[in-house]
Amino acid sequence: xxxxxxxxxxxxxxxxxxxxxxxxxxxxxxxxxxxxxxxxxxxxxxxxxxxxxxxxxxxxxxxxxxxxxxxxxxxxxxxxxxxxxxxxxxxxxxxxxxxxxxxxxxxxxxxxxxxxxxxxxxxxxxxxxxxxxxxxxxxxxxxxxxxxxxxxxxxxxxxxxxxxxxxxxxxxxxxxxxxxxxxxxxxxxx
Length: 190
Prior knowledge:
Layout: E1 9-11, E2 20-23, H1 24-33, E3 41-46, E4 49-58, E5 62-72, E6 82-86, H2 92-103, E7 107-112, H3 122-143, E8 150-151, E9 155-156, H4 157-165, H5 181-189
Parallel strand pairs: 1-3, 6-7, 7-8, 7-9
Antiparallel strand pairs: 2-5, 3-4, 4-5
Helix pairs in contact: 2-3
């Protein structure tokens, strides 16, 4: 049985291949929690690519890496999928974000629909957004994704429909629909 060695994964929004540098909490995590040392390997994800890197130098503030190889992230789907999600009660949105990121969603847009019981004001939702984005980041690491999907601002139903109209394909599930052939045809064509 062949076992694949899983290297720790870290995300960077920008990456200079000549001097890859991880700073902040991730640098502290690499040195103090993981106790990694110079010469050890880890994976840096940026632009949908996985960069296998060797640690060149390490301090609690900065970890400098040399790129050994890179490849497109195999866990990224070939289509970009945006999930427009009606805002659920309590903390269910957190679980929805986690599972949808693990399944390959590219972007999550919370939507206020007529039947939403939870109706956060935009300012209230802005306070929750960093936590929701952190959940997306954690799920992306867990699933081996090549980048962190974005959690958008809460939108009105009308605004969500306007945004969705600009996409290539739009599917809106309806629980009373009996003929699933059309949806299947659309999905097979993607």
